[in-house]
Design brief:
This protein is α/β, with parallel strands linked by helices. It is 47% helix and 13% strand. It contains 9 helices and 7 strands, in the order βαβαβαβαβαβααβαα. β2, α2 and β3 form a beta-alpha-beta unit. α3 runs parallel beside α4.
Length: 261
């Protein structure tokens, strides 16, 4: 029986990863800030699928919370075979409009936190000669659209390099880059989604199903659906002023830029 640890596990893509992996028979370690919601999710999955589900409440932007999750990944007697770095959120506004602390926290959740947790998981996986590490990035990583896109681009670059370094030793590292997904992501950002065409929306179940297919094959980057692979490809060759057009707007405005759960 293998064990998967998922951060941001109670909503959106993280919750769908938890459900699908439990259905496949994996034991789970679920990480989220809301202890009550986390306990409810863990109990429901354990009851429905008969797997062992451990709830690990932690604020990953708090040093103690991050330490507790890293310590769990370092446990050799209860190894984690699959790490899904899903926790994250979007940030509105341009760099000059945000405080240093806002930008630093945003960078930490998308870069420093997955770096720390990946390193914690990696040693045991390499010793065992097997393991999978996932970073949930975004198709925004391929566009010049502010600090969110820049942070997500780090995840893609990191996964490509780490997969190259460790796949031959049995450990794959994959960046999953979805586009618009129907989750709580935009609601939490308080941005309008009214201007997003219906055909661009994906549901979390489809994203995770396609992601797991690529993860199981050891791919370094997975972009769910052909439509978003085309969009990512175009973003690489279009002029920056075209690829970077658009932007998040506050609730009530007409449209919104690229987002992720």
């Amino acid at each position: 029986m293998t064990t998967a640890l998922i951060t941001g596990a109670t909503a959106g893509i993280g919750a769908e990863f938890a459900r699908r992996l439990a259905a496949q028979g994996h034991d789970l370690v679920l990480v989220a800030r809301d202890a009550s919601r986390l306990a409810d999710s863990a109990a429901a999955l354990q009851h429905e699928f008969g797997v062992r589900v451990e709830a690990l409440p932690a604020d990953l932007l708090d040093p103690e919370g991050l330490d507790s999750v890293a310590a769990r990944l370092l446990e050799r007697r209860r190894p984690v075979d699959l790490l899904v770095n899903n926790a994250g959120y979007g940030i509105r506004g341009e760099l000059h409009e945000n405080t240093v602390e806002q930008e630093k926290r945003h960078l930490d959740i998308h870069v420093s936190v997955p770096l720390r947790l990946t390193q914690a998981a990696l040693g045991g996986m390499l010793d065992r000669g097997s393991g999978r590490i996932v970073l949930i990035s975004s198709v925004a990583a391929f566009t010049p659209r502010g600090t969110y896109a820049a942070a997500k681009a780090w995840g893609v670059s990191f996964a490509r390099g780490a997969n190259l370094a460790y796949r031959a030793r049995g450990v794959s590292v994959t960046a999953v880059c979805p586009g618009f997904v129907r989750t709580e992501f935009h609601e939490r950002m308080e941005v309008s989604t009214a201007g997003i065409p219906a055909f661009l929306w994906l549901d979390a179940a489809r994203v995770v199903r396609l992601a797991l297919r690529g993860i199981e094959r050891g791919r370094s980057v997975v972009i769910p659906t052909v439509r978003y692979r085309v969009i990512a490809g175009l973003a690489r060759v279009l002029p920056d002023r075209v690829a970077g057009s658009g932007g998040f707007r506050s609730r009530g405005d007409r449209d919104v830029d690229e987002g992720r759960s």
